[in-house]
Amino acid sequence: TRTTRPQRLLKAVQDRAIRGNPKSVISVIDHYCRNQEWAMNVGDEKGFILDSVVSELNPQTVLELGTYCGYSAVRIGRLLHSGARLLTLEFNPDYAAVAREVISWAGLENTVQLVEGASGDWIPRLREHFGIHTFDFIFLDHWKEGYLADIKLLEECRLLRKGTVLLADNVVCPGAPDYLEYVRKSPLYDSRYFKSHLEYTKAEDGLEKSVYLG
Ligand SMILES: Oc1cc(-c2ccc(F)cc2)cc2nccnc12
Ligand SMILES: [Mg+2]
């Protein structure tokens, strides 16, 4: 049977990227998805904004919702300082299998931990299961319908603290209107929009950065 899009992306990484070199994994994926086969990675343009938010924050504990092929886990993981950890949740087992290989190829298996399952099931169990107190940084990049429910769950589970930064992908395309309305209206958040483009295209998209005020 045919290979899947994630499997073809993984083959490009294994054929063209340097093992243990996150920068080369990122550039191989971006070149492949721009020139051969589009895939829903955050990409290089929005990725540059992601990099600047992470670098400025220098977080110790990071949560990513939606791993896909592991591109943004590698982007974030490569910027974390020793002792810092990224926990990334992926619902789709086929995506998770590819992402584990991409994360390993980049040499980030000790920094990035991939957990398979639904974010709504896992968020209430993160403290007891992984000994996490609160997150410094959260990247939302899974199904847009789940953004609002998941940050309300993170609030309820007291996994946010004063200053926790949430960064949400695709708030314009495909769009997360209920999430945007919530973080922009709520006195609990200080929110701003970073205008950009949908990965590898000219269509508008952007990232919403929201600081939890607690
Ligand atoms: O970055 C993204 C882009 C798209 C997407 C798909 C098809 C289009 F036509 C436009 C945009 C879907 C996504 N789902 C989950 C996480 N990230 C996504
Ligand atoms: Mg996305």
Helix count from the secondary structure assignment: 10
Mean pLDDT across the residues is: 98
Oligomer: single chain
**Structural shape:** globular
Query: What share of the residues lie within helices?
Result: 40-55%
Ions, cofactors and other bound molecules: 7-(4-fluorophenyl)quinoxalin-5-ol, magnesium ion
Q: What characterizes the major β-sheet?
A: 7 strands, mixed
Rg is 16 Å
> Secondary-structure element order, as H and E?
HHHEHEHEHHEHEHHEE
For the terminal residues, how far apart are their CA atoms?
A: 51 Å
As residue ranges, the low-confidence spans are none
Task: Order the strands across the largest sheet as they lie in space.
Answer: 3-2-1-4-5-7-6
Report on this structure.
The chain is an alpha/beta fold. It is 44% helix and 20% strand. It has 10 helices and 7 strands. The chain has a 7-stranded mixed beta sheet with strand order 3-2-1-4-5-7-6, sandwiched between helices. It is globular. The model has no long low-confidence stretch (mean pLDDT 98). The structure holds 7-(4-fluorophenyl)quinoxalin-5-ol and magnesium ion (MG).
